[in-house]
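Sanity check

After download, print the first record. It should look like this:
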Amino acid sequence: MEEVDTSESSERRRWWQRSYTRLALLTSLAVLAAYIIAEALPFADPIPAAITAAVATRAAFHHAAKETAFQILGALLGALVALAFVSIIGTGPFVMFLLVLLAFALARVLHLSTPDESPFVAASMAVTMILVVGTHFTNELALERFNGVAIGALCSLAASYFAISSKNTRLLRTQISDLQRDLGLLLADVATGLRDTPTSDEASSWLDQAIELRNRALGLDATFEDLKSHRRWSPRIDPDDLEQLRRGLDAGRVTSARVLSIASDLTHAAGGVGASALPPAVLSPLADLIALAAVNMAAEDPATSVGTTKAHEAVRNADQTSQIALIGGIVSHVNRINRATSEGSSDDEPGSQS
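Expected structure tokens:
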């Protein structure tokens, strides 16, 4: 009974720590602050201020700080363009139509975000444009609405600082991704070299690279532990982000160890003769199997097992028991790499938009 209570208490604490809850609280605070500030200042409309704070904070969530600033600048730019536009040619339904088209054009031409995120930034700009134009348009009202948008954008910037992942979190996520990429490149290089009988120097080079990648994986583990120890003092270190990082690190740790074992086995085989050497007939299917694993590591939805036919073909072509053991070990390492890659990408990536 006590264990159940402890589990429920832990789940409640985790719910309050979730990124969704933090986003809701920060957005609400940004809206409240924007409304109060705009209401207290002359020539500022609190309604556009509150709406801009809500929209900009939501759009900026989990993005890098630089991109966040560009998105909020986009909202301000949209408001400024709308103010100039309607001051010159007036307002009306057709003007609204033109402003929305202009928002999408500006978001793409000025590179205010990545191409995939441009529609969301453009929508945010369009909202601020419409807020500035509003109803019962006059230059005075437009200026008040623009000032409100500016206040809302500033409040959103302050809230977004706490909403986005910390710099160390984003850096570690990038380093994990780079490690997985380099491991995949090494496997691809090994696969290419195996299609011809690899020399001792070539195999030794693979081993040196595998050792370096293994050391990088261990270093990232230490970095993660340091980041996790600071979780208590930093509200920007999200438990969901930590869980995603942990899965990526687990995959990198397993993969780097298995790649090191493969490189070590191949180095031993390249310098051996007779029973300790790889028979020529197994090189091609073994190379195909490792190449498939490298491709699988780079896939968006990696499989837990690939190249089963190639694995069987490689084992069948072994002549002696020691060769079967060597090849079977390499096949086992490749299969474990595939499983680790699949497990490492099976989370919902709460902070992957950084």
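If your output differs, re-run the checksum step. Summary of this record's structure: The first helix runs from residue 2 to 17.
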